[in-house]
Amino acid sequence: MSALTFTLKKDLIQKLDVSPLTPDLLADKTHAEIASTLLWYGKKQIAAGEAFAITGIDTNKIVFDQSTSKIDHIGTGLKTGKITVNGHAGAFLAFNMSNGNITVNGNVADFAASGMAGGLLQINGNVGDYLGAAIIGDRKGMKGGIVIVKGNAGERTGDQMRRGIILIEGNVGTYCASRMLAGTIGVLGNVGEYVGYGMRRGTLILTKTPKLHATIQDCGTHTLPFLSLMFKSFSDLPSKFAQMNQNRAQRFAGDISNDGKGEILVLR
Questions:
Q1: Is residue 48 within a helix (H) or strand (E), and if so which, with residue range?
Q2: Within a 10 A sphere around the Cβ of 101, how many other Cβ atoms?
Q3: Who contacts 218 (Cβ-Cβ below 8 Å, separation ≥6)?
Q4: Could you give the C-alpha distances from 19 to 24, 106, 226, in angstroms and in order?
Q5: Rounded to an integer, what distance in angstroms lies between the CA atom of residue 101 and that of residue 3?
Q6: Most buried of the four, 5, 52, 53, 166, by CB within 10 Å?
């Protein structure tokens, strides 16, 4: 069966919330019912058929074609199936996702993977600020799953992250892993200032030594066997991290101003 495909046909001026368009919510619906699904467009609602040309029938595989950064909440609450985005995605991609697979062949706006608890999110471009971070008013960000970013990430990546894995092949902005509660973040490129600011627990794996603030403490260079096991667990992922196999790292502990049980490992 061909994938259920939503090809954007409306010139979007306002943000379009497509959170109702997920495999689990559209299962067993007719083509007409899918086309009549109401979506928030700014302050009003419009039918999905007004915004998209809809083709295909396999609701377990959804494709957004010609997508733009004005399309928000792609894959919100995803529980099953696969979503492919050809183009860019707006804010709150994979928000509260618990299972399934999302691939974006473009760039993504802010708060991607916020509240994500499971599944795999692959971004084949750049991503904005607050990747895997808590939304305003929440105290926990990403809670599980795996996020792979082929490009760069913005500021506050992993802010208040609770669990899960984020692997970034490019550079990351300031305050990476700020207030991090647990989980793992890997970065192959550069990271900005104030990395690990307010970090309580969790592991940040880097390949380049960052500029560190005073409450991150150098613990020396060590051989850490668990790193080999971790990289082995990445071997099947579509990421450059799958080819890594190192267990020697310079370890930094902190943030000692906030419990200090987090660690920054710079591979050697």
A1: helix 48-51
A2: 17
A3: 250, 251, 252
A4: 11, 19, 39
A5: 14
A6: 166
Distance CA 149, CA 209 (A): 20
Sequence ranges of the domains in the chain: 110-267
- What is the share, in percent, of the chain residues with pLDDT greater than 70? 100
Q: In what order do the strands lie in the sheet with 16-17?
A: 44-47, 38-41, 16-17, 71-72
User: Has residue 1 got a pLDDT over 90?
Assistant: no
DSSP 3-state of 4 = strand
How far apart CA 99 and CA 101 sit, in angstroms, is 7
| Type of residue found at 84 | T
Where does the pLDDT of residue 88 fall: very low under 50, low under 70, confident under 90, or very high at 90 and above?
very high
Q: Give the tokens for residue 163.
A: 């669990």
* Per-residue model confidence (pLDDT) at position 250: 97
pLDDT band (50, 70, 90) for residue 260: confident
Q: What is the mean pLDDT of residues 187-208?
A: 97
Q: What is the predicted pLDDT for the residue at 259?
A: 84
234 and 166 Cβ atoms separated by less than 8 Å: no
CA distances from 168 to 24, 148, 153, 214 (A): 29, 6, 7, 25
Q: What is the rounded CA–CA span in Å between residue 90 and residue 241?
A: 26
**What residues contact residue 94 under an 8 Å CB cut-off, 6+ apart?**
74, 75, 76, 78, 102, 112, 113, 116, 119, 121, 147
Nearest to 158 by CA among 114, 191, 189, 190: 114
Burial group, residue 131, by CB count within 10 angstroms (0-12, 13-18, 19+): buried
What the block records as the tokens of 85 is 């985005």
